[in-house]
Records
---
Amino acid sequence: MIAKTLSAAALAAALLATPVVSYGQSGTSPADKTAEWTSLPVFDQAGKKIGTISEARADGTGHVTDIVVDTDAGQQIIVANEQFDRGTAGVTLSMTEGQLLKGAVPIK
């Protein structure tokens, strides 16, 4: 009888405890993950630096879905996640600077 009462009390305490939000092993929130991308250099397919990231946009889990690049040519362009890879030195696009500038619609 006492064991059942203690088990019920432990279950009630566990259910009433404030849940702790877990962001995985890194301990960073989705907003923190996108902030890490800001100001990273952006390189074209040939390795030429073409700008920096001014904003990273993410889904609810923190996965970056696209980036906003401030180009050295003075344009601001959105690049979708299938068109870039993040490395240790920055972000590398899967296209040349010419292809990016030719095919993109600038934000400003």
Note: The first strand starts at residue 41 and ends at 43.
---
Amino acid sequence: MKEVHLIVVGKLKDKNIESLENDYLKRVKSPKFIIHEVKSHKENLDLEAGEVEKKLNDLGPCYPILLAENGQLFDSPKMSKWLFNLIENRSEKIVFIIGGASGHGVKIIERAKEKLSLSPLTYPHKLARLLFVEQIYRAITIQSGHPYHK
């Protein structure tokens, strides 16, 4: 079974958002969706990049994609098509990365193959994570023809 990974700098501490996130995660069956939280270093981008890089190395061959303000923008149907094209055509693990409060370290920016933006708007870290998890679920429902996306 194919896997999609999300590496997030910092831990989700809001129980309400965690509950919403878990609701979506329970619905995601295939592809397997795995979230990895790595330690935040109070806006020290080099240390945070080191944490992300260690996790990327632990995952083995991967195709890293940054969530970033200057990334590609898609509507939900186009994101679903793009995501499933990656899943079907890449041999590496698809790994999305949400950086810390100050963004991504240089090592991670250089290692990324693509950048994705959720919106031109700026969101708090915990909401960006929740929105991304929901969009993964939505992409799956679009691909499968489920009526969730209307």
Note: The mean pLDDT is 89.
